[in-house]
Amino acid sequence: MTNTQDQDTTLPDVTEAPNPVIRTMRMLWNDKFAFVSVVFLLIVLLCAIVGPFLLEDAATKQNLRGRNAPPFDFSTAWPYWLGGDALGRPLLARIIVAAQNTIFVAAGAVFFSLLIGTTLGLIAGYTSRIISQIIMRLADIIMSFPSLLLAVIVLFMLDSSVFNLVIVLAITRIPVYLRTARAETMEVRERMFVQAAKVMGASNGRIIFRHILPVVFPTLITIATLDFAFVMLAESALSFLGIGIQPPEITWGLMVSQGRPYLTTAWWLSFWPGLAIILTTLSLNLVSNWLRTALDPAQRWRLEIVRKKNG
Amino acid sequence: MLKFLGSRAIASAISLVGLILLVFFLSRLTGDPTGLYLPLDASEESRNQFREIHGLNDPLLIQFFNYLGDLVRLDFGESIRRSEPAIDVVLRGFGWTLQLAVVTMSLVVVFSIILGSLAAFHVGGVFDRIATFFSLIGASAPDFWIAIVAIVIFSVNLGWVPTSGTGTVWHWILPVSVLFIRPFGLILQIVRGSMITALSSAYVKTARAKGIKNKAIIFVHALRNALLPVITVIGDQAAALLNGAVVVETIFGFPGVGKLMIDSILQRDFTVVMAAIMLTATAIFVMNLVIDILYSILDPRIRY
Amino acid sequence: MGERLLDVRNLSVDFHTTHGTVHAVRDVNWHLDRGETLAILGESGSGKSVSASAILNLIDMPPGEITSGEILFEGADLLTMHAEERRKLNGCRIAMIFQDPLSHLNPVYSVGFQIAETMTAHGQSKAGTRAKTIELLERVGIPNAETKVDAYPHQFSGGQRQRIMIAMALALKPDILIADEPTTALDVTVQAQILTLLEELQQETGMGLLLITHDLGVVAEIADRVVVMNSGEIVETGSASDVYHNPQHPYTKQLIAAIPGNGIMAQQLDQTAPILQIEKLSKHYGAFVALDEVSLTVLPGETVAVVGESGSGKSTLAKTVLRLQDATSGEALFEGRDLVQMDRKDLFKVRRDIQMVFQDPTQSLNPRMSIYDIISEAFVIHPEILDKQHWKARVCELLQQVGLKPDHMYRHPHQFSGGQRQRIAIARALALEPKLIVCDEAVSALDVSIQAQVMTLLKQLQDDLGISYLFIAHDLLLVRDFAHRVIVMQNGKIVEQGPVEQIFDAPREAYTRNLIAASLSPDPEIQATRRIALDELQGANP
């Protein structure tokens, strides 16, 4: 036998795999924008989780002397550093508290639409034509159903709660994952390793969950990151129009809306929560871009070589 | 080609019927408009009369079949709020929305394609970084926030443009600019990504070996291939605009179909809601067909 | 020889990758004269294409970097020239054709546009280009050039596309034509035609032809001189005949020894009950008949090779036997039971006995599973084979059996070389202890030396375990050394079948003779006589 020769004539030995965690961290560090974004998102996440426990009281306490207090007055307590709102509540504290609803609504909607959309997409991509057609027509209907109408209907029939808003937004985003998962599944099912699994006698369930899903999933995660930003914007728009979250609950979108009457006299009421939205969605977009490169074996090298001075 | 158009029309018709069904019954669930239009102390008799006129007394299923019957004769019913045919109200609003969408999307398509292609040519270069940065900010910006900040700066403080209305060209500048930002950012990103793929393809290598000039490689060889995925996204964005840019229309007092729809939903003006949804769904269907045809023009491998 | 056209001196190119810097070529020297054909021979990863890419300024920098050397074209160094000057040389004085013309032609433009573009990009006016394009297409042998000029690349066959690439490259009568694996993906008969065309055109124009290839047969057919490359370095240079008959470097010797076609042909096995008996098996796609009443048998421990060109239906046969698609009619009896009619439950059981090894091991192994997961999946699906506690030991055993180190079992496929991956795929098939393995072009994606090793492994396994092979291939030389019996297919039908000696020494059908004559011998002298034989054959059956 010529067993050892194969290794001699090709690569000297199989290449050593670097630890995936270290490798990911290194790729993240090489893309400074993505790195800063991840740090920012972690801070936002921290605010969303512990913010309301610590600052709930401060954020709801009205203070007549602090009405529309201007920002950057560092002689006041720190929650007032970004100014106060029309009822004299500290804006910084309110933004931190509002992070919870804003992030929870978006996360919940993305989670459910990802789960349902992916499942339906895998089914549509792998089973018979008829089932696939039914699922696709359903997706078409959802796509052309105005999300505002859906919001009004759901919020009218049920009541305006964070969870119901999650349902509305999740339904409207299902087609995004469904279409992608179906298209990718139809491509991956023709690949040779799927054929190889079939030859071994693998069941449909095994082929879908063990062979197709792991290949499709990175694409879906990249889209989900991007969609998180989209859902955040949609939630803020609904809250802004008055058919989303209702006071006394707060989200960043609602804060922008509440500040609107005071735009000419106290611009900061709307400006800061809007900035919070922009920075968060921008970070999500940057992370999504990074993910798309990092998860694509053909593009990954762009993150792994250290750029030369003149690029 | 005809067979393809036919099957597309059937698929869309099925979806449209499903949509009509859903909207009809779900919107009825939001409540009875009578209370909204008659004074609080109106007698039960006048309430009944109101319901009778607008056909709200029959069982829901009968109402639905009556509605379908009228629909066959292209009768979309009468608006409760405006006391005129619902379709007239909707067409008026749709006209405004269509103009806004066409102007905005034309600008978006031209700018995002040119700038995205140039950014892709030198990945990581100065121009690429600037274009990527601004397009990402554009894609991340909440339009209502941009709109109100823009009003404060350009209308209130600087007084350059009016705050709302549709009278002159000046009235259009702010709504179009605000609507421009997000699709521009998104599509530029897609163009850039798609162009990077196209520029690293084998046929571009051939073109370089043939001694083709860079400009022709970008705009002749790579761009036409790169546009295929871009067109799909342009379609999605245009569809969103056709559905009515509710937020921007509301803030700028622009009488488009989006604002009309939200007002009608809140006012339980069901006939207008139904007519608006059918019209926009049909418009989006036509636009998707145009996109499919564009696809087959751009890529000779696609034949229906 | 004629004047010196191109002189590559001390060229070194690095690529900066994840795993550090790769020296793609190191200190390479070669030259090309007018009217001569130089072949750069090497296996994948040898750096054989890199210097050609450097000539045309096609190396992406970064990640590439030219660290030293010069490329003199008519005495002027290309590497110090301005990009615009180099663009003017590309396509005009130096032209290139590539492997895989389908992806190298722009799919959305007509071939006429793409050929004419070469002319207009170098200053010719648009007016006369159409007539010239049609003329060029006629010259390279495209039928109905008048109308085909407006057709798109996907509307041509693989061989025609390569002819179009050639027309495009020769539009401005360049001094140098670089051909990068121009015939690799093509059928043998088409390959012979393309090489003949290149030779004719070279004689017409007197250009220098630089041919990059991995195939010693192609070198024997067309090259005057050959440069042998291995891991970025030139190991040997000389005339094609000298290098074949008198190789100096151990690498060249090993390469020549690995070429199939010189072994002893196997004797027919004694007639026993067949393990697989196919009767009048047909597969139709609508009106298209992919498989037309094919009948054959495979005995236990026997290797039956199915050869044919693309579109002959040989892969359809494999897929149909494995029930990856349903047959239209006919039967396939495996140990007496019909696979075509079998229900799910029986089919599941019989899956253990019939396994498959696919063409491209890169694609047939799930990139996200470890080697252990890939091989032990057999036991997950068929738990009756083995208790879970023995899986690990069995995977180790299987890896050793195919010549891999057991301690690599937690690595992923991309960490292995092509030959190693195919060994993993074979281990996966063996895990089910099959009686029959269908090999669909199982070694055609591999380098010659790796090919030889994998074939040795397959033969060894047959001797040890008594496995039968249905071996689907397009490479006749490979089949000659390996098969007991050979089946020749064309357009979905069996043209000829018989023991391997009969097919190669006394083929009855003209198609078979043609196929054998068109396959290239690595020996330049033998190839020269074969060439004459092929010309006569084609003269006899136009």
Features:
heterotrimer, B: 304 residues, mainly alpha, MetI-like fold, 2 domains, 13 helices, C: 542 residues, alpha/beta, Rossmann fold, six-stranded mixed sheet, 22 helices, 20 strands, globular
- What is the arithmetic mean of pLDDT of chain B? 83
Q: Which chains make the largest contact?
A: A-C, 36 and 54 residues
Order of helices and strands of chain B: HHHHHHHHHHHHH
Q: Class of chain A in CATH?
A: Mainly Alpha
Low-pLDDT runs of 5+ residues of chain B are none
CATH third-level topology of the largest domain in chain B: MetI-like fold
Specify the helix fraction band of chain B.
over 70%
Cα distance spanning the termini of chain A: 49 Å
| Overall shape of chain A | globular
Describe the overall structure.
- The complex is a heterotrimer of chains A (about 300), B (about 300) and C (about 550).
- In chain A, about 70% of the residues lie in helices and about 0% in strands.
- Chain A has a single domain (about 20-60, about 75-310), classed as MetI-like fold (Orthogonal Bundle).
- In chain A, helix 7 (about 160-190) packs antiparallel against helix 9 and helix 9 runs antiparallel to helix 11 (about 270-295).
- Chain A contains twelve helices and no strands.
- Mean pLDDT of chain A is about 80; it is low at about 1-15 and about 305-310.
- Chain A starts with a helix and ends in a 7-residue tail after the last helix.
- Chain A has about 300 residues and is mainly α.
- The relative contact order of chain A is 0.13.
- Chain B is mainly α and about 300 residues long.
- Helices cover about 75% and strands about 0% of the residues of chain B.
- Chain B contains 13 helices and no strands.
- In chain B, helix 1 packs antiparallel against helix 13.
- Chain B is flat.
- With about 550 residues, chain C is of the alpha/beta class.
- Chain C has two domains: about 40-50 and about 80-255, 3-Layer(aba) Sandwich (Rossmann fold); about 275-515, Rossmann fold (3-Layer(aba) Sandwich), CATH 3.40.50.300.
- Helix content of chain C is about 40%, strand content about 25%.
- Chain C has 22 helices and 20 strands.
- Chain C has a six-stranded mixed β-sheet with strand order 6-7-8-3-9-10. In chain C, strands 16-17-18-13-19-20 form a six-stranded mixed β-sheet, sandwiched between helices.
- In chain C, a hairpin with a 2-residue loop joins strand 9 (about 225-230) and strand 10 (about 235-240).
- In chain C, helix 4 packs across helix 5 (about 130-140).
- The interface of A and B includes residues 253 and 285 of A.
